[in-house]
Specification:
homodimer; alpha/beta; 8-stranded mixed beta sheet; 8-stranded parallel barrel; 33 helices; about 45% helix; about 20% strand; elongated
Chain lengths: ~900, ~900
């Protein structure tokens, strides 16, 4: 005979986790917890097969079901020493649906089933709380009346409001036991009115009514639609779970509580939780009584002793359950429990939510205990979560008043005096002041000010605007697009809706939330816990992808090394041309009439550029350093605003009119696709000559502990460009050797950032020793989307489902990814030892890092502050490509 | 025994064309002409094997060579009835090098070898011209002295200058026979001085000296370098050709002349040429005597009868040779001949240069005569050459004064009064005046003025600037980038270096040469010869690629049909939004605050747009018409110059400040990669809704003779975009059906103009019924080059060999082409009947058309004026893919 009812309770169960199809998810889980020997309130599951039978037979049950239910009920009665319908020791049950796949739309839960006037008295007596019993009763009628009998919830609420109004009561808690009894009477009248039938008083009638309603709900419109949308089988059916109610308010030997098996904010392996004696869960929620701790801390409050002291036996049983649960689920658990008359019942357990710090500690501890593998520990931490450990955060205890909100563009909090120009930022910053740079938007000529500032605030642009990208690269907190802030650069002040500030005023920004505050809000410095270092060590030993950083300043390079970068994957030399003297020389170079004049202007920059490289090389001694030759179009070095030209011209000793003419001449319709990168190198060979010479001279100066030098050509699309430029590099190298007698060791490679370059990778690789995929530009050209202009339609494209995710944030595997794979395959076919990496924003995105691992790249390079994230992401990718994706992460 | 010497002459030859490796190119060709029975001056070839032997044996000749040469010389003497070294009837010869592959750097030619004091007298006697004989002698010494004996050419010239100075002579022709004899003496003294040896007087010594010099020149530095650069074999060696000299100045039964076997300017099948009795070739060049015609025209000048009359027997022999040559070479020949004492000698024959008109006529005639196949006739015409037939040209007889030159940007000549604004062009144009629009540069808002003008002139931009591209599309003559022209739009005048003109002055431009002239220069209207139509008919029957046109105006559509376009492949609807009223409504639409206001503004454009389509559909009845929905970013519809905003605002009834704000808001960093195409359609669905409705209504109105409607979505990169937009199109179609009871028949397809679209073509094709490759944008995104900005480095890239040809002119087969092939393959795999075409500038480029044929596309679409070129190019591609590429085209 087919079994229709599976019992569980007393640490045993008829079913087990694998019977999910038959018992539904909830039923299988209850069986599993019982199988662990945990004290779960007993009950039984009516199988999904019964549901299918009902569907097929006009709602009639299979033969023998009633008897099986009756026997299962008896077993529950025996285990709980109660009886269904008994007025003294009444058994109350919950009835819940539960299909194999979770599904909204079906009948959810009926609690306290079994209550009627008689059993309510029993509940009142055993709990010593008539009001509680009456409230439970009226709740049951309301819930049952609604979900089983179909009476509108609103109608019950109206009745309740009327009674409260009549009593002059504001809150439910203002009503007495007697009041609730009156509500019960009126509820019953309502049900009779609405359904034409009296509310069922017989517990068995209540039970079968609820069971029928659960099965019926399988076919209601919402559930059917849901299954259709999600391609689920209509034949599957739902199971019905019937489980004994337990109560923590049955006297001083009863209680209710919640517990974490470890500290969810620190991850320390100490029980963490609280309980309320002689109380129901609602009492905890209501906050009327103060819960007590589970364990004895340094001091024990004698008036309100911890559970460890107050109920030592039950406490021992509870902590034994903790261990069993952690061992079984191999993770920190968040547990709800109730003690009814000295008997412990575990109501629910699940993996507990935790802070990042705790997540690290727990994963590392579990691995060290041998509960999980190191690989599993790595898999437990979402790399993105590390970000919050790496930046200062606002002190949560501090009082804050947010005057305006923008977009969170670069995480961390920063306070400082507001300044409205990059020059002022640099002036005050180098004088030792903490400044926050406030600009409408930023451009490359603001870089020195951004470096000098603690944080950056703009009222324009999105999360991929210049300010955002550069700030993330520098690890500076940044808020962008605070549109309600009106910035006046003339008066050097800014106005929000209800507040304003001027240059010199202290402000605070939170780049993790986008909040802008007046004054200095205390912040907490990031402190990397031991578990972080331990886990990152494991990650490093497991990953195969190397992680480098994008850096050009000594500060960034040092940050990168501190965070574990294995060299520099992208040193953007143009960032070295904006500071002080250099921008003047750069502008003279741009204004030069011929190569001779250009060379003269460049000669003034050369020693500074060489010194930059010397510093960088010292920090990165022994590691690879990829230096990209000048990339941006020349007009980026002229003031963006033509109005500023006069001032600039005066400072640079140039003719304003000539400068204006040159600026107009250099202006481009689409600078992204303009005269930049290798195109500059071919048009003005003297620029790259100067850079390459400075690089070689710096390498010579640091020859005692040299870096592994890689010279990178930007924006090429053909082998010929590489040939032309690398022969000039060789020429400079020969000249340096001739002058010094020392021969530089270096390789030459290219950015692959144009579709044409990816397609021509086979021939390019014949002349290039490495490729670095410039995924920012490659994404721009592959999609034909300018990152600077995408803001206007990106949101719409995400809404319309054209993008699942912003392709500038996470690599487009289908399109851009195919080009990367084509280039990698063709490049390696031509040159088997070709080194492959990516640089750009995607290098710090965990999903993109996983792709790079899968595509067989050698390294990714990202902002210094993203290095730990990339290291962990690379390790996860290695684990997952080895072990497969886990069923459930974290 | 190996033969070292191959003889030819008297209509016979030892060798033939296939012995190229042994006889060299020149020797093999001489053998071939003899093989045809043509009267070629006799001679012999010393093989390349002899050269190799010399190389290997320190310059010594193989055994028996001298004897073979002696015998060959005797044969020549016999045929020419002369004798080498004979003072009465001296044999003179030329000596030339000739390797298998032509190669600069080797000894070229020694003429009149065999002359000395004795033989010179014989020459003087037989020619009756002592001065000629002496001049020939001194030329021989000079040539031999230089190339064989290594005396500097300069030194001989110095001697000549001294003699001329002493005689007070200015020109060589001022010198008498006696003077030349003096020069000869001084030349001999010079050679003795310089070489230490007297100049060789013995003809045999001269001959062996020359032969040795030819073989030696195989190893000179220039020839060696050339072979290394071109990967030629150093072992190959050169042959030496020794050929009898013949003279046309040996009396009245002698002459010299040139002839074309057909008329090289019209292609008519009548002999065309001239001759000079008793003269050498130099006399023709010197222009002292007037040559006479070969054939008798309407009138015969009795004083100077044509050759047909003067020398009927030789004339008959000559014309017989014409026929033999044309039959053999299967093409019109350009022939040099000499008659020496009544004996005809053919000196040279080659395929004759001809005008395009003649080329067509000749190819068609030859095919109709069965000399060549129709396929070969097609192969004979470079499609690009047709361009000059399709546009008006300046009357060559007219007097012109060019005041400034720009770049030729769109072919044809045009005269009209200069106007300096698009509005003025439209006003005067619609009043019936011919105008030439003069602007610094043009932008989309000038389109109506460009339409109204006969020609366009700018002083900025290159051949792919807006003005150039649009003018070519419209078939308007256009000169761009006339940088020396200073245009003042305020005073409405322009100033060149030495002239100026103002609004209302007549000017003429020649878009084929870039010339700008004052006044009205007479032009000749294009007249398509019958042969053009006949050849195009053959082309149409042979080609498999369909040819459509890019057109949006009725004028363009009619031009396209007249030139044989098989439908419209690209109707750019944005061009319809710039005229008069529409731009105002468009600007109101752009200023609208919400969809409602946008719809109201669009409703004003709708009836005009519908009418546009009605006209287009009537012209194209029965043909496919691809309509591209709005593509450019909205800011293109606002004035490019912010200064003009006030005026524009006033005219449109808009608030100037609001308009300025909106313009700033819409401004883009990289408009090419901005908010345009499908992105606009998704952001502002009401724009496409209006367009689609107008299209369907127009289709309804022309339902009696409908076009094959194809609606095209621009700038997509994913199937989702297509799905979103095509469901809206379906929605509009349903609404039209609901309103009219008529159901539109249409297909929906996409531009493939982004690398991402090409890669995602498989999934896009599931939702698109056709692809049109937008090769302009695809080239921009694949290379990462903005066409508008490329001018600054394009020339440098062509110089450096990065580009073999501008990729915006001719498709980049390697990169862009691979993307096209990927998209075609994936698209057809997903949808086997997917229609594939290209639109854009490349559609009219013959090389690109050939690629499209090879890649299996269904059609190309190009400017109306390029349609014949594309038809012919498609036919050539079909022929060549069938028959292979010919050895020599045209």
């Amino acid at each position: 005979m087919t079994r229709h009812v599976y019992r569980f309770g007393g640490g045993q169960a008829d079913g087990h986790a694998d019977l999910r199809d038959l018992l539904g998810g909830k039923g299988a889980n209850l069986a599993e917890m019982n199988g662990l020997g945990l004290p779960v309130p007993p009950g039984f599951t009516i199988t999904t097969a019964v549901c299918s039978h009902c569907q097929a037979h006009d709602g009639s049950y299979p033969e023998g079901l009633e008897k099986e239910v009756e026997q299962a009920l008896e077993a529950v009665e025996a285990m709980t020493e109660t009886e269904f319908g008994d007025p003294v020791r009444p058994l109350l049950v919950s009835v819940r649906s539960g299909a194999a796949a979770s599904m909204p739309g079906m009948l959810d839960t009926v609690l306290n089933l079994g209550l009627n006037d008689a059993t309510r008295e029993g509940l009142a007596a055993s709990s010593g709380d008539a009001r509680f019993a009456a409230d439970s009763h009226r709740r049951f009628i309301q819930m049952y009346g609604n979900v089983v009998l179909g009476v509108s919830h609103r109608m019950f609420e109206d009745v309740l409001d009327e009674v409260k109004f009549a009593k002059g009561a504001e809150l439910d808690t203002d009503l007495s036991a007697g009041d609730w009894l009156a509500v019960i009477e009126r509820y019953r009248a309502l049900v009779l009115d609405e359904t034409g039938e009296p509310f069922p008083e017989d517990p068995r009638a209540q039970l079968w009514g609820a069971v029928g309603a659960v099965f019926g709900s399988w076919s209601n419109a919402r559930a059917v639609t849901y299954r259709e949308l999600h391609g689920l089988d209509h034949a599957g059916g739902t199971a019905v779970n019937v489980q004994a109610m337990v109560f923590g308010n049955m006297g001083e030997d009863s209680c209710t509580g919640v517990a974490f098996t470890r500290d969810p904010s620190t991850g320390e392996p100490s029980y963490y939780g609280e309980f309320l004696p002689n109380a129901q869960g609602e009492d905890v929620v209501a906050g009327i009584r103060t819960p007590r701790p589970l364990t004895a801390g340094a001091v024990v409050d004698a008036e309100a002793p911890p559970m460890e002291v107050a109920m030592p036996a039950v406490y021992a049983e509870l902590t034994a359950a903790f261990t069993r649960l952690e061992t079984h689920y191999r993770d920190m658990q968040d547990i709800e429990f109730t003690v009814q008359k000295g008997k412990l019942w575990i109501l629910q357990t699940r993996n507990g939510k935790r802070s990042t710090k705790a997540a690290l500690r727990i994963a590392v501890d579990l691995a060290n205990q041998g509960v999980i593998s190191r690989a599993e520990a790595i898999r437990r931490i979402e790399p993105e979560r590390l970000d919050q450990l790496l930046h200062p955060t606002l002190d949560p205890a501090a009082h804050t008043r947010v005057i305006v909100r923008g977009l969170p563009a670069s995480p961390g909090a920063a306070s400082g005096i507001a300044v409205f120009s990059a020059d002022e930022a640099e002036r005050r910053g180098s004088a030792g002041e903490d400044v926050v740079l406030v600009r409408s938007e930023t451009s490359p000529e603001d870089i020195h000010g951004m470096h000098a500032a603690r944080g950056i605030l703009t009222n324009r642009g999105g999360q991929t605007s210049h300010a955002a990208v550069v700030a993330r690269g520098m690890g500076r907190p940044c808020v962008v697009g605070a549109g309600e802030l009106v910035i006046n650069h003339d008066t050097r002040s800014a106005k929000a809706l209800s507040s304003s500030f001027a240059e010199g005023d202290l402000i605070t920004i939170d780049g993790s939330t986008g909040a802008v505050m007046l004054g200095k809000v205390p912040t907490i410095s990031p402190e990397l816990p031991d578990a972080f270092h331990e886990l990152m060590g494991w990650a490093d030993s497991i990953r195969t992808l190397r992680i480098r950083a994008n850096a050009e300043t000594p500060v960034d390079a040092e940050t990168a090394r501190r965070f574990g970068a294995e060299g520099i994957g992208l040193c953007r030399t143009e960032h070295m041309f904006f500071d002080g003297e250099r921008i003047l020389a750069m502008r003279q170079m741009i204004m030069a009439e011929n190569a001779e004049e250009r060379r003269a202007a460049l000669a003034r920059i050369a020693p500074m550029q060489r010194q930059d490289f010397v510093e960088l090389f010292r920090i990165m001694a022994g590691w690879p350093v990829t230096i990209r030759l000048l990339d941006p179009p020349l007009h980026e070095f002229l003031p963006a605003n033509l109005d500023e030209l006069g001032e600039v011209a005066a400072r640079a000793g140039l003719d304003a009119e000539a400068l204006r003419r040159r600026a107009t001449e250099l202006a481009e319709a689409n600078p992204m696709l303009g005269h930049r990168g290798a195109r500059l190198g071919i048009s003005y060979p003297e620029i790259y000559d100067m850079q390459v010479q400075a690089i070689f001279e710096a390498l010579h100066e640091t020859a005692d502990a040299p870096v592994e030098l890689e010279i990178m050509l930007p924006l090429v699309f053909s082998r010929t460009e590489v040939n032309v430029l690398r022969s000039r590099i060789a020429h400079v190298a020969e000249a340096v050797t001739a002058a010094t007698g020392w021969t530089p060791s270096y390789t030459v490679g290219t950015m692959i950032e144009l579709p044409r370059a990816a397609l021509a990778a086979g021939s390019i690789a014949e002349s290039a020793e490495f490729f670095s995929f410039g995924t920012n530009d490659l994404t721009q050209t592959t999609f034909g989307i300018s990152r600077d202009d995408a803001g206007r339609f990106l949101a719409g494209y995400l809404d319309a489902g054209v993008f699942a995710v912003d392709p500038f944030v996470s690599l487009d595997a289908e399109g851009v990814g195919e080009l990367i794979q084509i280039a990698a395959a063709r490049g390696r076919a031509a040159r088997p030892d070709l080194k492959l990496g990516i640089c750009g924003e995607h290098g710090g995105d965990p999903a993109s890092v996983a792709h790079c691992h899968a595509w067989g790249l050698d390294y990714v390079s990202c902002s210094p502050y993203r290095v730990p994230i990339a290291r962990l992401a690379a390790a996860r990718a290695a684990v997952e490509s080895r072990d497969g994706t886990p069923d459930s992460a974290d």
